[in-house]
Fold:
Amino acid sequence: MGNLSTGTIVFNPGYNWTTGTSSPGQVLIQPIALHELGHWLTLKDLYGSVGGYPSDTDKVMFGFGGLRKYEQALAPDNVAGIRWIYANGTPPPTPTPVVPHPYPGPHVVPGGVEAEDYDAGGEGVAYHDTEPANLGGAYRPSEGVDIETANGLTDIGWTRAGEWLVYTVTATTPQDVVIRLRVSNPDASMKEIPVLVNGEYVAAVWVPSTGSFGDFTTVDSGPFSLPAGDSTVRLVFEQVGRVDLDSIEFAPWVPPPPILPVPGGADNPFDLDGDGLHEDVNANMRQDFADVVWLFAHL
Structure:
């Protein structure tokens, strides 16, 4: 942490000073104070106002003109903070927090969302992108998420590790859902996209190789619960990049049919290693030749 320094600026009483809006016969304190503070910090005057060269007239240290008719003032929150420190102790106003909100309108669950319709709210609130430009230049060109339109398809591309997107969705009742992503992955490795609901990890989507950015596939997450009302859903490109995202669907989760007991078996078939294959068909808690014998005996 740096040191807090103080200095004193003496204003010439021969001028009519004001903290409001300057007018003929009055001089605004803020630009003069900022300019002189710059000199205290060893900054020099700037005089770049010659045609054909960059102009300095909009800078605090512009030195032309006795009463500095070019006015650079502090932002209101900075003024409030200074008054809190040096004046009467009135605390600065609490800034209104920026929260994400659905774009361009509500997204009701069950239902679909185009990937480029991530929330409004800006960088650090509705999304995080590692560079400020929209590299694709499409749809929302003034924001940092990289959106492209090609062959009639608008999607999010140029994803990099550490980026994320937020979607606010509305469920009329509590419900179990899966997220269904239409994605492409040109690389050979599978890529994980974690899903967070209201800040908590709930599931992941594993994206297989599709061979190219232009070849899309549809992949489901595991099931998770959404409460009634609004929820923020965050897709995180945590440790992966090079995934293009076209659309998102919030689909009802349909439980798989129950595993039925095998006739003559001791119990329901059992998945010993958690790979989804119930290889212990006679449920004796081991995978052995008895399972093979039992299967052939009941074919």
